[in-house]
Amino acid sequence: MAASSTAIYHATATAPVNIAVIKYWGKASTKLNTPTNSSLSVTLSQEDLRTITTASCSPSFESDALWLNGAVHDVSNARSQACFAELRALRKAKEDRDSSLPPLSTYKLHLISENNFPTAAGLASSAAGFAAFVRAIADLYELDENPTELSRIARQGSGSACRSLFGGFVAWEKGSRDDGYDSVAVQVAPESHWPTIRAAILVISDAKKGVSSTSGMQATVATSTLFPNRANVVVPARMEAMKKAIAERDFETFADLTMADSNSFHAVCLDTIPPIFYMNDASRAAVRVVEEINRCAGKKVAAYTFDAGPNAVIYYDESNQNIVLGALKKGTADVPGWSEKHLDINASLPDGFNETILTA
Ligand code: ADP
Ligand code: DP6
Ligand code: CO
């Protein structure tokens, strides 16, 4: 039976943010959105940072459209179009196999999406955003593809999005095929493997970044002389070391690698012509606080990492929650620009903590 022109089909999906501990920065192919190096991230709890997207389609819709946080958002770009096309092709194949299915693949799509955290501010909104985009349409189309297959599609929307199709510890393997087919996300370990790992988010600025991730990494690949060594030598070795640290739940090695990779990524940004500055004075104060926490503890109990923006993500083990959050909470009162939005309130300062470093 033909659908009436007023029929509307819809599905809603959520997707979490992931924050990389080994960073993706550089495209091997801008067309396929494949990376110059593999990367690895931790998927955060959806209770804090998440995207929620409702996808609908109807014979009465005249064009594909997206409303992001209440405002119309362009979907004419090649990357959104690639996601639409791939998902429609999978639905079309399903309709060809079963002629009783309504022809949703021929209808225009409307997406309504909301991020409950700052968009384009270096807190991985494109990751949660495109993961939810793909998942909502896949649900609407009742596709059977597994998360790795969906990650191949989400990658084309935003690289980091492929990792948000999984929970826990997730690698995006750069792949070696010319068509990008093996450039997909795989779960390295489920959340249950290391359930005590936590992330504190220090919101330093919710303003839209001056240089988007897409254009920043293209400038770095084109101009940084440090970049080839990072992508080809430093990161491949770090990926292996990070997988081992996660397998062994070795927080100190995890922390050393996470902080070193964040610094290496921001170093190649500084080495870009013209230089790109994502971290600011308040970000650097967060680095000093983490260094001070680790000095007081006599071992690495906290690890900072910064994406393409000034906001800090600080990983720690639940067993050290009091000392880590105590110090960060003190900072939210004292450092201009720090917000305690995602910090626990009932935490105490570590013994011997040097409060004088809490100035940006
Ligand atoms: P971020 O550090 O937040 O990932 P990016 O520069 O990588 O910043 O990407 C920001 C862009 O991602 C936005 O301008 C928008 O185009 C896209 N985006 C963010 N959230 C969503 C969403 N919920 N749905 C679709 N696209 C989104
Ligand atoms: C610093 O995935 O946002 O957060 O593929 O161009 O959309 P596009 O870039 P995006 O880049 C993320 C960069 C990063 C590191 C990371 O998440 O691995
Ligand atoms: Co992004």
**Ligands bound, unique:** adenosine-5'-diphosphate, ligand DP6, cobalt (II) ion
- CA-atom Rg in angstroms: 21 Å
Main sheet overview? 5 strands, mixed
Task: Flag low-confidence runs.
Answer: none
Oligomer: single chain
Number of strands: 15
Helix/strand-derived class?
Answer: alpha+beta
Count of helical stretches: 8
- Lateral arrangement of strands in the main beta sheet: 1-6-9-7-8
Alpha carbon gap, first and last residue: 66 Å
Average predicted confidence as pLDDT: 93
- Shape estimate: globular
Helix and strand sequence: EEEEEEEEHEHHEEEHHHHEEHE
Strand content bin: 15-25%
Topology:
Blueprint: E1 9-16, E2 18-22, E3 27-29, E4 34-35, E5 39-43, E6 50-58, E7 65-68, E8 71-73, H1 78-97, E9 108-115, H2 125-140, H3 147-157, E10 169-172, E11 185-189, E12 197-203, H4 213-223, H5 227-247, H6 251-270, H7 281-297, E13 302-306, E14 312-317, H8 321-334, E15 339-342
Parallel strand pairs: 7-9
Antiparallel strand pairs: 1-6, 2-5, 3-4, 5-10, 6-9, 7-8, 10-11, 12-14, 12-15, 13-14
Helix pairs in contact: 1-3, 2-3, 5-6, 7-8
Bound molecules: adenosine-5'-diphosphate, ligand DP6 and cobalt (II) ion (CO).
Structure commentary:
It is a single chain. This protein has helices at residues 78-97, 125-140, 147-157, 213-223, 227-247, 251-270, 281-297, 321-334, and strands at residues 9-16, 18-22, 27-29, 34-35, 39-43, 50-58, 65-68, 71-73, 108-115, 169-172, 185-189, 197-203, 302-306, 312-317, 339-342. The chain is α+β, with helices and mostly antiparallel strands and 360 residues long. The strands form 4 sheets. The protein has a 5-stranded mixed beta sheet. A 4-stranded antiparallel beta sheet has the order 2-5-10-11. Strands 13-14-12-15 form a 4-stranded antiparallel beta sheet. Strand 7 (65-68) and strand 8 form a beta hairpin. The termini are far apart. The site of cobalt (II) ion has 6 residues, from helix 2. Ligand DP6 binds at residues 20, 23-25, 33, 39, 124, 126, 158-160, 213-214, 307-308. Residues 200-360 form the Mvd1 C-terminal domain.
